[in-house]
Amino acid sequence: MNDSALVTDLYELTMLQAYFDEGMGARAVFELFVRALPPQRNFLVAAGLEQALDYLEQLHFTADELAWLSASGRFKPAFLDWLRGFRFSGDVDAMGEGTVFFADEPILRVEAPIGEAQFVESRLLNLLNFSTLIATKAARCVLAAPGKLLVDFGLRRAHGAEAGVLAARASYLAGFAGSATVLAGQRFGVPVFGTMAHAYIEAHELETEAFMQFSASQPSRVTLLIDTYDTEAAAARVVALAPALQARGAQLVAVRIDSGDLAAHAHRVRAIFDGGGLAEVGIFASGNLDEHRIAALLAAGAPIDGFGIGTQLTTSADAPALDSAYKLQSYAGVPRRKRSEGKATWPGAKQVYRRFAADGSLLCDHVTLLGEPPPAGCVALLQPVLRGGARLAPSPTLDALRGHAADNLARLPDALRRLEAAAAGESYPVHISPALQALAAEVDRRPH
């Protein structure tokens, strides 16, 4: 990932210099939260914490970056000299990746000298927003296609290389089987999947020759692309070639269909394979899919065993942004509150507690002031992860995070598992504690 300290907004630097000039160095509390869920979203899945912690631990200004800032003429020499030793020395509490959360719940709390806590705003929002968007989109696909093989196909339509790689990680965390993005395999251990493009088929004189040559080159777990010319004719060719492929040691596991009426093609290909002794060969579909199209295909009984999901996943096309914020909640021990119309915040450092129903499903959440007695029978969601600028423990493995995400999704009430927005009265209850409401009223009475 890009670890430059200059991956930030200019105002973070101008405020940092102003804090420096004024000698403002008392500790501040900032919290990152989402004001409102996007349309059609009944929950969000936290992701990106690992990259956020990497950023905070590694944050520093290089000599080249300081030279560029100096040449800009915007910053004073004494401030730039101070930046040479600038590091993040604060504390972070956060929800674990894979945790389901809702509007108005802080998912990350930063406590540090105000300049440090302020400066990291832009990159933290950048990292957590994107991964959370993609993990949530992927989770919706997982809920739409239980038990199906789901693979991220979205690198080529992602908004840049970092986005493509982080999307592969976030979707795997949320329950996908893997990704076509090779770097995600090398960097994160995400299983990588791939077949062939239509160009490979077209480059051969005969479709049969392309199938045979590819199977000879890549004999392990072969998936053949069969919709370049005539999908059903290609399926019949696969049946005819199957004995020769087996004799060569090729392991044919599936075919991929990428165009046309996927349900109709899948039904016909399944019939051809079942009648030709290839009942064990699966059908994998791709082509501008999202959770809604997948749900419709499966509701229609399409015999599809897996899906490659690209553009709609890595751009979170129907909800490409979060109404998220990173706001000051306390400075020098005094609670602070933004009161802007439509963007008011709850003051003070906070904790989020979760209550579960008797069957283990999510029942409700409570947002309280940090230090309030926890509601009986609830679990605290924000946990310490960084102290004094360093991790408290090694990060969980990606497989452990997948397990945590799967557990959270399994606990969602039925109303929240649907792809459409929950009906009135079915949205998840998030209670703001009376003490927090009272503190907000007290802060509002102060002169400003």
Structural features:
448 residues; 7-stranded antiparallel beta sheet; 6-stranded parallel beta sheet; 17 helices; alpha/beta; nicotinate phosphoribosyltransferase; single chain; TIM Barrel
Task: Provide structural commentary.
This protein has helices spanning 10-22, 49-58, 63-72, 77-83, 114-119, 121-144, 161-173, 182-188, 198-202, 207-217, 231-248, 262-275, 291-299, 311-314, 398-410, 414-417, 434-445, and strands at 27-36, 44-45, 91-94, 100-101, 108-113, 149-152, 178-179, 222-225, 252-257, 282-286, 306-309, 323-331, 334-335, 350-356, 362-369, 379-380, 383-387, 390-391, 430-432. The chain has 448 residues and is of the alpha/beta class. It has two domains: 10-134 and 321-445, nicotinate phosphoribosyltransferase; 145-314, Aldolase class I (TIM Barrel), CATH 3.20.20. The protein has a seven-stranded antiparallel beta sheet with strand order 13-12-1-5-3-17-18. Helix 11 (231-248) packs across helix 12 (262-275). The chain starts with 9 loop residues before the first helix and ends with a helix.
Spatial sequence of strands, sheet with the most strands: 13-12-1-5-3-17-18
DSSP strand (E) fraction? Answer: 15-25%
Largest sheet: 7 strands, antiparallel
Low-confidence segments, ≥5 residues, pLDDT <50? none
